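Lay summary. Proteins are chains of building blocks that fold into shapes, and those shapes determine what they do. In this project we predict the shape from the chain. Here is one chain we studied, written as its sequence of building blocks.
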Amino acid sequence: MIIEKAHGRLNVVYDCSESKTTSLSVFTMLGFGATLLPSQFVIKKHSWYEVEEQFVRRNFDKALMSLKAVKSLDIRTSLDSLNLTPISGYKALRSLRLKVHLGTQLDLKNLSHLEMLYGESPSLQNITGLRELHCLKYVSVSQLRKSWFRTLPPSVERLFLRGALETSIDLSDLPKLGYLGIANARSIDFRSFSWVATNISRLDLTEISSLTNVEKLIELTPNLKTLHFRGDDESYLNLSQSLQGFAKIIRSE
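And here is the predicted shape, written in a compact code that computers can read:
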């Protein structure tokens, strides 16, 4: 089996093209995490071949049923309408990454050890029960909605967003928030925010088309120490001048 590193843990990779759930379960019991890549198209011995979709789905369902003790789970697929409800019973799960569309709600209230939740689709916000997860520290989500933000527990320390941060979202509701990342937003006018997040010490801004009223960050994040930026020269110069003597600006390539 192929092994990959994910979330600081070694994950066994399973493409669901063959029925190997027993070995997957054994690896999990030994402390490995699991990465599931259900796909009709699989490469073996340097050549591609197609697997019947229903066979892949059946293997995926069996795999989920065999992973009740898993601590790290990563699912990446373009297949729709997968049944993810077994995850609700993964009480040992600490990190969950979903690169998949969630067509229905998924209740995670019983995952009391979950520390990291990562999603690349806005449909991640079909997940419920997060308010009960007092160990949840890291959340990554696309197009964050205020209604879902309000379900996050106060234990969250790191928040990464793809898309704009709504002006109505109050980051002070996360008293332990020390890191904020925003990527691929069209524009950010910092004067449109009224919250004060006193614990944020690091801010990441990635590929933001327009940044205005940057000096407002001095009020919004009074304890900011470093700002990591990736973007155009004009925005970088604006940040450097507006925050000179307040925070260290680090430009990423």
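What the prediction tells us: Residues 95 and 112 are 11 Å apart (CA to CA).
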